[in-house]
Amino acid sequence: MPKFPTDAPTDKVTKTVENLGFPPIREGSHSSVLRENSDGTRTLLIMPNYCKIKSSTLHTIPTQSVILRDGFLAIYRKL
Q: Global pTM?
């Protein structure tokens, strides 16, 4: 199973979740992104807006956003 990067640049993580259908809705000390699901529900994801995101925090993003880990990492590595 591929590992998450140790310190991931926030810009790259933000672009990854945007490619997964989460457009940004708010930015401050944290970034908020929102996805409209096909069944009419919404999935909100809030990420820290630091220079780098630690792997422990990065690990929770696919879990909270109901995205497969491998899919997240594949898009992350392409960018």
A: 0.88
Residue 1 lies in a domain: no
CA 39 to chain centre: 21
Torsion 55-61-67-71 (CA) sign: negative
Residue 2 domain flag: no
Rounded to whole angstroms, the Cα distance separating 44 from 25 reads 10
Whether the CB-CB separation of 10 and 52 falls below 8 Å is answered with yes
1-31 tens-digit pLDDT: 788 898 999 999 999 999 999 999 999 999 9
